[in-house]
Amino acid sequence: MAQTDTFTRWSVIASGEGGGRIASQFFDRTENPGIDDRILVMNTNRADLRNTIDRLKAKLNTTDEEAVIESHALEFGSQQGAGNFFPNGEACAREDLDRIVNRITEFGTSDAFMHVATLGGGTGNGSIPYVIDQFKDGLRDLNDDNAAQEWMDSVIHAAFGVWPYYYEQPQRHFNAVCGLSRLLRTDEDEQNADMVLLASNSHLDDEETGAGDQYDSINDAIITAIDLMIGAGRETRSVIDIKDYVTIPSQMDAYHFTPAVATDLNGSVYELEYMLDQAAEGTFVPMDVETTAAAYAIVRAPERMIDDGEITEPEVYEAFRDWTGKHDINVAGQASLTPKRGRGSDVDVLLLLGGFDLNPLLDHSWDDFEMLGESLAGQSRGGGADLTATQLDRIVDNLESYVERNAE
């Protein structure tokens, strides 16, 4: 994987209005470690893309709409929306794959992509798994440039999928189950995304309000987790980088993760193991922590505390070992200490928990998925896209076999 002198270069690719809403909040951060302004939001629906563009203009404090569109937005496909039917979103991406590729390659030779989509809809949920698959395996016919192809072959693809609220209509839960399966596995039952990160709206918003400001709070939590995850690769102290996150879990076939975050903990008062426990209580999906098969701990502390020896790398390693031992977790994983600006004592902790039993999350959607499965198989909802019974069976088989390998 190509590296700059000090950090991995990331690009963010978001599709659908939900994904665009999340991506736009990156611009609220004073610093985007490794991302800078390499952010592209895509949509098949002009009105939804307009909402995202307006949001980007507000975040960037600009009235130059053309500059925002040229730098950060793309309308793709000939349909006006996916109709909450993920095959339509995939068909639009297939139709305009060359335009999507050209826009993404304008970011230059990124080392990793963070693909973002909400899994209940049709646009992002349909297009993102397809785009990842094509980037990994299908671009040779689109690009004759050997150097460009070598770059594309080396890029690591992480995906962040957001589960719909539990109360939402069955169609959205049908989409979510299909989207998770397609992010994890290709039609040929091979690994698709190198890492699949998951968050659940209802788990992060336990009152299930679904209000706009609550979406912003959920999305801000997601951005915080991504910042912590990417920020660890910025520094030379006990670096954990994207290649560390994906290599062993992929070999174990246990490459789905959820973040667990605790921020603003007083590092002068609390023990590190307590901080890890606090983070573990903040998982982004329902799960049993003791089913974790791969874990990474990132502790971010003020540089002053690190320089003064108040928090050290050996202490972080030891606390992580003690924490995994206390929970009887036999994991593949690493721990990292990374600095942040500021002279206070506030410490942030991210646990990336992977390979856990997915059934507590799927239980909220499986009945809806099965109820709609038979009626949707063989349907077409415009744009020439359909979902055959064979395709649906493959989606089910791929997901069930993956979940079974990672269940207790």
Automatic annotation (TrEMBL):
Keywords attached to this entry: Coiled coil
Keyword Glycoprotein part of the UniProt annotation: no
GO MF entry, a single one: GTP binding
InterPro entries attached to this UniProt entry: Tubulin/FtsZ_GTPase_sf (IPR036525), Tubulin_FtsZ_GTPase (IPR003008)
Domain Tubulin/FtsZ GTPase: 12-204
Top-rank taxon, per record: Archaea
Coiled-coil residue spans: 39-66
Coiled coil listed as a keyword: yes
Record-given protein name: Tubulin/FtsZ GTPase domain-containing protein
Organism: Natrinema saccharevitans
